[in-house]
Amino acid sequence: MNREAPGPDGHAAACAEAPPDESVRPAAFLGILLAVDAALVLLLDKIGWAAAALAGAGVVAFWLARVEWLLAFLLLGLPLLWPLGLRPAASEATYFGICALLFPATWLALRASRSSWRASLSRLLSEPAALLVLALALLLWVRLPASPAPEYGAGKLKSFLIANAILFFAPALLWPVWRERARVDRLLRALLVVGGLFVAAGAVYALGWADWLSRSEPYGGGAPGVPGRLGWLGIDPIWTARALAVWIVLLAWSAARRLLRPWLAATFAFPAFPLLFATGSRGPLGALLLAPLALLALPGARRLLRLKNLVRLLVPLALAAAVALLLLPGEDRDRLLATVLRTPLGSIVGATGAEMSATIEGAALRDASVLYRVQIIERGLTALRDALPWGAGTGGFPALLFLRDVRLYPHNIEAELAIELGLPGLALFLAFLVLVWRRARVLAAREPSHAGLFALFAMAFLNAQVSGDLSGNALLWFWGGAICAVACAARAPAGEPGIRA
Q1: Residue 1 predicted with pLDDT over 80
Q2: 65, β-bridge pairs
Q3: Which residues contact 267 (CB under 8 A, 6 or more apart)?
Q4: CA angle 405–406–411, rounded 5-degree value
Q5: Burial of 61 (0-12, 13-18, 19+ CB in 10 A)
């Protein structure tokens, strides 16, 4: 049925019967505007804090929606907070606040993947590697009363719980999420971006464009003929070198997963190499060079080391490193070569050749850090005979060597565990290594591109042989947790309760 167009009278009647347009309310709009103006006036002297709070709320909302970015920031991005000038108490509170965000972010990620927290936790607690981490934490606590250095031992236990254990279980709890390859790629992209910001800050400082990015005092410098080692964003060169080495491996892994072209990855890695060289830290550098060889332990990843793949992936990175070395200033290049060539043989030559001590070359060969490590190993072997089979107690390593309750890095994680926690602690750690390796083999056989996770784990393990202590090698636990999580997701059947088919 056709309707006739309403006449003038009908149109007026229709308009009269229609409800008033309430989409715009001038009074309400003016009220909101006055409230915002009043708030801005009240916060005028604290407008910086207000802006920071708004920006922080936006970052938190983004992290809650993208848990991979939260993990990436927790692993590599915390130094980026250093320019805020947070005091130690505020810095610690900020760290705990970021860790607390892992709970809602993990819950939202599991819910988005149609998985339940209960199913994820139940399956994770059946993972032997997770139980080994819990057992190691329990052993640290149980052996603390027997320690001759209770203050250092308590600090080590606290650090292991709030850093290492969190960094292991944070990715491990997300194992249902890693069933999607896109989520693993998202984590990789997040790590690349956050690590890239760290590298960019280092490049800006190294070029002299922002001196405020440096530490408050030089690290390792000040003595005649001993230049300072490069560190920025409030962390020392050792941790700086570790982060740079991780970023370089992430670039190679991205190229292997075809997220980046190899030459583009080499271009991005180019500024990281001179920064890594300038830190003068040999542990991360040596671990970086040996990490690709760890892929030989994975049957599915052997083809990554074929000549074609070496040319496509590693040669561009090697060229970038060579060019970066050539472009270094002469004194920095000489210092780097002297640092790299500081071998035990060079230390022996420097120690026995008294005539070389008066020259810079002799000082470079007589490496104090290597001699110090040799002395620690010699004293550690003597202490080990007295400490076995149960160990001297958590934190007891320096007390046995120097009869003092001091914080001393053993620079070898196995020696530390054997002396402090005895054969049980060493056995737990070795079992953890074996389980992670077995999980990595299963992953590599199914998806060779996952071999990058094991390369990162192997690099952290190699670095732990010559640097830090049990609680000072957080990267080892994070990559171990990531490997176990991805392997757990690969083994879980599609129809498991609480897991999306």
Answers
A1: no
A2: none
A3: 320
A4: 125
A5: exposed
